[in-house]
TrEMBL record:
Molecular functions per Gene Ontology: oxidoreductase activity
Lineage top rank: taxon: Bacteria
Family annotation (InterPro entries): NAD(P)-bd_dom_sf, SDR_fam
Pfam families to which the protein is assigned, alphabetical: adh_short
Recorded family membership: Belongs to the short-chain dehydrogenases/reductases (SDR) family.
PANTHER family in the record: PHOSPHATIDYLINOSITOL-GLYCAN BIOSYNTHESIS CLASS F PROTEIN, PHOSPHATIDYLINOSITOL-GLYCAN BIOSYNTHESIS CLASS F PROTEIN-RELATED
CDD domains: retinol-DH_like_SDR_c_like (cd05327)
Protein name in UniProt: SDR family oxidoreductase
Gene3D superfamilies: NAD(P)-binding Rossmann-like Domain (3.40.50.720)
Keywords: Oxidoreductase
Length: 306
């Protein structure tokens, strides 16, 4: 597999009117689109002509996001809104059923939704909240929506928002242990889920190598967003100290948009991006045994066939 060389920029700054950056006629599904990076990315993608499907949890915030996207790109196709709680597997499957029934193809899937709670929480399915929302939901969505990506043909892609926090993560095989306050914390759980995002991207790229569908992940940077507002006091304090160096949601969304419009995505298949460039990941995130172990764990916990 040809890989984009780490440290090289994706491509020059994009002109919304250029053919390379146009998303005219392409359907883009974006999770976590009601605020922060997701909403910023939605506005930018709409300006490039994308037919956006916005997946949000809250109806009121979802409608506000849809209105904001329409205002930002009045000549773009009207965004569509789907509602669901990605921490609940039955909800994720319901959303997949609806998407498979409504759309003939999907050109870009952007797994952006993520949580960083103040403490460990267990979902109705018995999984730790970060693990369920940040990793298992993208795992289900991506696998179940593969027929729509296949229908779009070569050039279709899966983009997952990861984090530099993946460097502190590890993959715990026991679901109960992940939600055990004696063994973990909300922040370590978040780091584990971000490592899972990177490993999943690399495993997916390997599995789809001959299909023309590509997989990419990215670190958006330290962002002034509402992700931190529900975190622990310590994490909020650290974010407050980092605030002078934090970037806006609009700036953070740029790498998502670059990956969504990359003219030759196969050259960047399986890569992790930071500030618009392919960069190296942690040793654990490069471990092929860990990739395959994560896939087995995820398949068992979601019922998705390997």
């Amino acid at each position: 597999m040809y890989r984009h060389r780490p440290g090289r920029p994706l491509h020059p700054a994009m002109n919304p009117d250029s053919a390379a950056s146009s998303l005219q006629g392409r359907t883009v599904l974006l999770t976590g689109a009601s605020a922060g990076i997701g909403l910023a990315a939605a506005r930018q993608l709409a300006r490039l002509g994308a037919h956006l499907v916005l997946l949000c949890r809250d109806a009121d915030r979802g409608e506000q996001a849809r209105a904001a996207v329409q205002l930002a790109a009045p000549h773009a196709p009207r965004p569509e809104l789907l509602l669901g709680d990605l921490s609940v597997q039955a909800e994720v499957h319901r959303l997949c059923d609806e998407l498979l029934a409504r759309y003939p193809r999907l050109d870009v899937l952007i797994n952006n939704a993520g949580v960083l709670p103040d403490q460990l929480h267990r979902t109705p399915d018995g999984h730790e909240l970060c693990w369920a929302t940040n990793h298992l939901a993208p795992f289900i969505l991506t696998n179940r929506l593969l027929p729509l990506l296949m229908a779009a043909g070569p050039g279709a892609r899966v983009i997952t928002v990861a984090s530099e926090a993946h460097r502190l993560g590890e993959i715990e095989a026991n679901a109960a242990a992940r939600a055990d306050p004696g063994r973990s914390s909300a922040f370590t759980a978040y780091c584990d889920s971000k490592l899972a995002n990177v490993l999943f991207t690399k495993a997916l790229a390997e599995r789809l190598e001959l299909t023309g569908i590509t997989a990419h992940c990215l670190h958006p940077g330290v962002v002034r967003s509402n992700l931190w507002s529900h975190s622990s006091q310590l994490v909020r304090l650290l974010m407050l100290l980092a605030l002078p160096f934090a970037r806006s949601s609009e700036k953070a969304a740029e790498t998502i948009v670059q990956l969504a419009t990359l003219p030759q995505p196969q050259k960047a298949n399986g890569q992790y991006f930071k500030n618009g460039r392919a960069v190296s990941v942690s040793n654990r995130a490069e471990n092929r045994s860990e990739m395959h172990r994560l896939w087995r764990i995820s398949a068992e916990e979601t019922g998705i066939a390997e």
